[in-house]
Amino acid sequence: MKRKQLAYPFVIWVALFTVIPLCLIFYYAFVELNSTGDYTFTLAYLKKCFDPLYVKVFAKSIWLALISTVFCLVIGYPAAYILSRLQTQSNIWIMLIVLPMWMNFLLRTYSWLSLLEKNGILNNFIGMLGFNFRINILYTEYAVVLGMVYNFLPFMILPIYTVLKKMDQHIIEAAHDLGANKIVVFRKVIFPLSLSGVISGIAMVFMPAVTTFVVPSILGGNQVRLIGNVIEQQFLQADNWYFGSSLSIVLMVIILLSMGIITKYEKEEGGVGGLW
Amino acid sequence: MVSKINQFIQRFYLAIIFIFLYAPIAVLIIFSFNESRSRARFDGFTLKWYINMFKDPQIMDALYYTLIIAILSSLIATIIGTAAAIGISHMKKLERSTLMNLAYLPMLNADIVTGISLMLLFIFIGLSFGMTTMLLAHITFNIPYVILAVLPKIKQLDQHVYEAALDLGATPFDAYRKVIIPEIMPGIISGALIAFTMSFDDFVISFFTAGNGVSNLSIVIYSMAKRGVKPEINALSSIMFISVLTLLLIVNKLSSSNEKAQRN
What we know:
The complex is a heterodimer. By secondary structure, chain A is mainly α. Chain A is 72% helix and 2% strand. Chain A has a two-stranded antiparallel ribbon with strand order 1-2. The N and C termini of chain A lie far apart (51 Å). Chain B has 11 helices and no strands. Chain B is mainly alpha-helical. Chains A and B meet through helix 1, helix 3, helix 4, helix 5 and helix 7 of A and helix 1, helix 3, helix 4, helix 5 and helix 6 of B.
């Protein structure tokens, strides 16, 4: 038996449960049921995705995901940096960053409701401190972004931490010896060398953030509808598989394009010089 | 002096991050002991939700399905994925990259699209929704994680080891069982663990592929959304969270004392 034949069960599995299902989505995206009960080719549903109403939903999904990614990066990078510099027990601390992910993701998100409610814990706390303002962001886009940052922050911290931890300390010492101050060392040495971690962090936050329908449906109430919510609705409530499939395909294209852009940067950075 | 201030700022920053990450979890655990069903006002201490939890058939069924699907899907995915990783490592470049790209598709794609495409498939072939469909879906999204964990270990492997085993009279099957598999075991175990975790926590794909009467914990929690999540669920999650925390602390303790023993 040739050794590569060991992969055959997987090949069959992929064909059955990845390729055929995707073909089905493509099929439904381009057909409609006509009056005689036959399926005929149509671009109507794909066109409908570019209706201003839905373009807006796509744009908002991408925008909120981008904001969340930026927040995760700005908050997560320093955290990863500090963690990677801890002398003792740093693996316990990184474990504590991952640990929240062991609690059901829906439950953790629901928990924010108790914190953010009008008479919730956070507002009670602010009141107890004697301040006069209240936080009223529940069921708005702010709450959705907060939920995304909360859920996906560990995905940003982990890859950056891994890269920083592995970094050769001698390079940093050499830069100091050559007269660079801390800021210059960070800007010219540490940050560029950590870029591969930053990029995988961005990919790991941005992708789930664009497509999530759970966070907006819990923290956004019915006020914030992102593309995931619209797709879910088309399949489970409106029973419109054709339009749902078309939207799914547009979403897939957006993700593949952004992944393409993200990994392209990574490759360019593989060489010397590059962006920075 | 400057480094003291610096250190203080760093500690302070980390403390804020940890408060942010753990505040919702702390709230959840505290309110699992709450006398009333309120999720914002603490009305006194009780253990009744912990007792009720075991009597709630909806929660116990969901826990059962979550566990059984996580165990079965990670087991099957580990077998198929490990075999695939070994097979892929012996392929020519073009075959290998094609297959790898296909393998990553479910990881790259949006959960919601994977879930919906599988739902369409199951409707198309007329499979009735239930444990089977959910299991098939979970195996599908678990395999890539196993391959991703095992492949690097195979790359580290000295190719001559396998041939040496054959030269010494082992059959190919024995060579795998006694030489190759033990060598790549750390990768297989971490792949299986990742797969188990992914399956245990999955909502989106389960949501589209589960049937009537078969739900995992995530689906039950989502369906409770409108009426408010039952405090029994908080109790169950608190128990699970504390168990995982304890387990990790023990593992950490053991591995760090192992390291010390090795150094001495």
